[in-house]
Write a structure and sequence with these properties.
five-stranded antiparallel beta sheet; Histidine_triad_CS; binds guanosine-5'-monophosphate; catalytic activity; 115 residues; HIT family, subunit A; binds zinc ion; alpha+beta
C-alpha cells in the first residue's frame, strides 16, 4: 500500500518525531499552519474517520490523549490548542491515513472564519 504516513511509521520517509510508542507516532507537520503544528497518527492504517470501526475506539481515544501529552510538552497547556481531524474532500483531507492535527502557539482564528 502506498501510504505516506505508513512510510513515516516504518521510517522509510523521515519525520521530526516528538513521540512514539507501540501504537502511535506523533511528529511535526512539514507545512505548519501555526507556530506549533504536530500530527498524531495510529500506527494501524485507517484511511479516515469514515473507515474507523467500533473496535478502533480505544486506539482513537488514545490518539487524543497522546495529542494532549505532546501539547503539554510543547508548552501549550496553559494558553490552549486545537485538535482537528479532517475527513474527506470537503474538509481538505489530503493524506488518507487518519491523523489528528495539534495546533497552537498563537491565538487561532475562530472556526467560523474557516469558510
Ligand atoms: P490533511 O489535510 O490530510 O488533514 O493534513 C495532512 C497534513 O500532512 C498537512 O498538514 C501536510 O502539511 C502534512 N504532510 C504532508 N506530507 C507530509 C510529510 O511528508 N511529512 C510531514 N511531517 N507532514 C506532511
Ligand atoms: Zn497508512
Amino acid at each position: 500500500m502506498d501510504c505516506l504516513f505508513c512510510k513515516i511509521v516504518e521510517g522509510t520517509i523521515p519525520s521530526r518525531k516528538v513521540y512514539e510508542d507501540d501504537r502511535v507516532v506523533a511528529f511535526h507537520d512539514i507545512q505548519p499552519q501555526a507556530p506549533v503544528h504536530m500530527l498524531v497518527i495510529p500506527k494501524k492504517h485507517i484511511a479516515s474517520m469514515n473507515d474507523a470501526a467500533d473496535d478502533d475506539a480505544q486506539l482513537l481515544g488514545y490518539c487524543l490523549l497522546v495529542a494532549k501529552k505532546i501539547a503539554k510538552e510543547a508548552g501549550l497547556e496553559e494558553k490552549g490548542y486545537r485538535i482537528v481531524n479532517n475527513c474527506g474532500p470537503d474538509s481538505g483531507q489530503i493524506v488518507f491515513h487518519i491523523h489528528l492535527h495539534v495546533l497552537g502557539g498563537e491565538k487561532l482564528a475562530p472556526l467560523g472564519n474557516t469558510h
